[in-house]
Amino acid sequence: MDVDLIFKIAAIGIIVAVLNQLLVRSGREEQAMMTTLAGLIVVLLMIVYEIKDLFDVIKSLFDL
Whole-angstrom Cα distance, residue 31 to residue 27? Predict the structure, then answer.
């Protein structure tokens, strides 16, 4: 696992948390929820691509 991936996920988490707090305090709870969901989806897609790469490495390692 690359350390850059961890930093990217942490940066997305910080940005989403700040945006969430700003939107909640301004009375826009629905947009805050959508921002949180969008951040979650982005992080999950990043993790899915890394898992795909892991399976490709395992597949090539065992010549499957």
Answer: 9
